[in-house]
Amino acid sequence: MKTPRSFVAGVVALVVALAVALAVVFAWQGTAKRNPAPDVAYTLLDGRQGTLRALRGKVVLVSFWSMNCDTCVNEMPSIVATDGMFRARGYETLAIAMSYDPPNYVVSFVQTRQLPFPVALDVDGAHARAFGNVQLTPTSFIIGKDGRILEQKLGELDFVKLRALLDRELS
C-alpha cells in the first residue's frame, strides 16, 4: 500500500518545523552568553532607584517572575537561600515582577515571605523588552562582574549548577 504524498509532505514539514523551533530555542539560550546586559534603570518596591550599571563588580541574578507562575513562586525559597549563601561574597539578586502583576499583590508577596533582596516592578514592560522581550516566566539572567551575561535560563533554575557557577565567579 502506498503512502499518500500529502501525508509524507506533512510529516516532513512537521519535522522541519520542530528542527527550526529547537534551533531558535538553543540559539536564544546560547547567544546571550557574554553579551553585555542592558543597563536598565529600575524602581524598587521601597521607592529606591537603581541601575544594573551600579551593580558592576558583583555577580547578579536578574529574575523575571510573576505572581501567577507556580514555578516562580516555588523557586523563591531557593533564590532566597542562594542569596543568603553568596551575598557577602559579592552576589546580588534582583527580582523583577512582570508588568501584568498587580503591584499590591507583589508587595504583599514580598512582605509575607520577607524576601531579603530588591524587587522591582516592570510597570510598562520596558525591562522585559530590554532583556530581549521576556514574555515567559521564570526567565533568569546571571550577569558577571564585568556586566556581561554569563547565563540565561528559561524555566526553573538548576540551583546546584547556579551555586557552582557562583562559587567559580566569586572566587
Q: Explain this structure to me?
A:
The protein is of the alpha/beta class and 171 residues long. The radius of gyration is 19 Å and the shape is globular. Helices cover 42% and strands 20% of the residues. Residues 19-32 have low confidence and may be disordered. A hairpin with a 5-residue loop joins β1 and β2 (49-51). The chain contains five helices and seven strands, in the order αβββαβαβαββα. It has helices at 5-31, 70-86, 103-113, 126-130, 159-169; strands at residues 41-43, 49-51, 59-65, 91-97, 119-121, 139-143, 149-154. The chain has a five-stranded mixed β-sheet, covered by helices on one side.
Which structural traits does this protein have?
alpha/beta, two-stranded antiparallel sheet, 42% helix, 20% strand
Note the main sheet. Answer: 5 strands, mixed
% residues in beta strands:
15-25%
Percent range of helical residues: 40-55%
Oligomer: single chain
Looking at the structure, what is the overall shape? globular
Draw up the topology in text.
Blueprint: H1 5-31, E1 41-43, E2 49-51, E3 59-65, H2 70-86, E4 91-97, H3 103-113, E5 119-121, H4 126-130, E6 139-143, E7 149-154, H5 159-169
Parallel strand pairs: 3-4, 4-5
Antiparallel strand pairs: 1-2, 3-6, 6-7
Helix pairs in contact: 2-5
